[in-house]
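For reproducibility, we list the full input for the glycinamide ribonucleotide complex.
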Amino acid sequence: MKNIVVLVSGGGTNLQALIDAEKRGEITGGKITCVISSKADAYALERAKNNGINTRTLIRKDYPDVVSYSKAMLDILNEERADLVVYAGFMTILDECVCKAYPNRMMNVHPALIPSFCGKGFYGLHVHEAVLEKGVKVSGATVHFVTEVCDGGPIILQDTVRVENDDTPETLQRRIMENVEWKLLPKAVSLFCQDRITVKDGRAYIQE
Ligand code: GAR
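The corresponding predicted structure, in tokenized form, follows.
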């Protein structure tokens, strides 16, 4: 059974999707063993506690720089014996020492179709604001492995939704979460836990 450690910063609806999928028996070969929050008041922590999952907080402001924060995170991940680390709305960029210690063992859900609308500054509602400003007709979400390039690691799964004329950033965010993120993230986690994802030359392949 693989230990899944989930990193959060906010509401935690993606964490909830993972918890619900695990309860339905849809995370084959893995178990959420710890939730780590970068914010003390993240509602995601309540979701974890309500489901009996061990929680920890690691506050960015408590550390002088990103490297010392990242080293503290690495210590916790090692202590928790993480097999897979999932960014589920985790909004703090970590130093590359973390992803290099967990190559192709950290995944992130991003609320757009990478390589569009991603990278530094593209997070949360800002992504959907940029999508609407550009006027693209489809958007979606991407689950990818985390590398030292922000939102640049191998793409595991993607799916789309239509952008409607009367969408606001909030309505688009909700449609993408409900129709794509909450389905793709548990699916990608389950595939990982079954050792069905391989990475070659920067591309991820799923064994059917
Ligand atoms: C989600 O839409 C997630 O894709 C996004 O933040 C939201 C978190 O919601 N993540 C990013 O923008 C990372 N670049 P949640 O806390 O309810 O899961």
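The pocket of glycinamide ribonucleotide is lined by residues 10-14, 44, 88-89, 109-111, 123-124, 127, 177, 181 (CB under 6 Å). The two ends are 21 Å apart (CA to CA). Both points were considered when choosing residues for closer inspection.
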